[in-house]
Design brief:
The protein is an alpha/beta fold. The chain folds into two domains: 137 residues, Rossmann fold; 54 residues, no CATH class. Helices cover 42% and strands 15% of the residues. It has a five-stranded parallel β-sheet with strand order 2-3-4-1-5, sandwiched between helices. Helix 4 links the parallel strand 3 and strand 4.
Length: 202
């Protein structure tokens, strides 16, 4: 299981008083959906809509964007969906495919009963669409592929070793030879395969 730094950012977002809906954006396959699903384990209820896998979900947002209307529409497509104040996370995945869903983030934010996260692939945005962004009504997080520290976590390098590396870097001091050789080999691997989660996991 890959550990990602963005989870801590999501925890801080949730702790904010009256937090807004959140958009996580970034290239495809960097782990946006995976991170939200992991974060969702701390909620009692999780509702996920993916607009690429299920294009019919776009119809949910065709008419009124009032939250009560949206809840009824979602429940029509997902009968097991539960909406409980403060205990429900809603994921609008690949939101660049549905401009109306993007606009709905304003109304979810204003309502405030449920946490709503949208993910969008920056490389997949259709800039020819006339999409109105809910500026001022959403928060944003940029997600990248695994950085080198996350890559070290994935390779079972513990925090004690990573702290020592930081200390040596800060003090411009020599890294112990055994640690140096191991980390250099991992750095070479990281430079070759990169930080895309599926590749690192494999």
């Amino acid at each position: 299981m890959l550990s990602r730094k963005i989870i801590n950012k999501l925890i801080l977002w949730r702790k904010k008083d009256k937090h807004k809906s959140l958009i996580i954006y970034g290239a495809r396959q960097v782990g946006k959906t995976f991170a939200v699903r992991e974060f969702a384990k701390d909620y009692d209820h999780f509702v996920e809509l993916n607009f690429i896998e299920n294009p019919e979900f776009k119809k949910i947002f065709d008419e009124s964007l009032d939250v009560e209307n949206l809840k009824i529409n979602i429940s029509t497509y997902l009968p097991k969906a539960n909406f409980e104040k403060g205990k429900t996370l809603i994921l609008l995945d690949e939101i660049q495919e549905c401009g109306e869903a993007l606009q709905s983030l304003k109304f979810w934010s204003e309502d405030g009963r449920y946490d709503v996260i949208a993910t969008g692939s920056a490389l997949g945005m259709n800039y020819k669409q006339d999409i109105s962004y809910p500026v001022g009504n959403v928060d944003y997080l940029d997600m990248q592929a695994l950085d080198f520290e996350e890559f070290l976590w994935a390779n079972d390098i513990n925090e004690e070793v990573i702290s020592l590396l930081y200390k040596c870097y800060k003090n411009v001091s020599k890294v112990p030879a055994a640690i140096h050789d191991k980390i250099i080999n991992l750095l070479k691997q990281y430079m070759i395969i990169g930080g895309m989660p599926e590749v690192v996991q494999a």
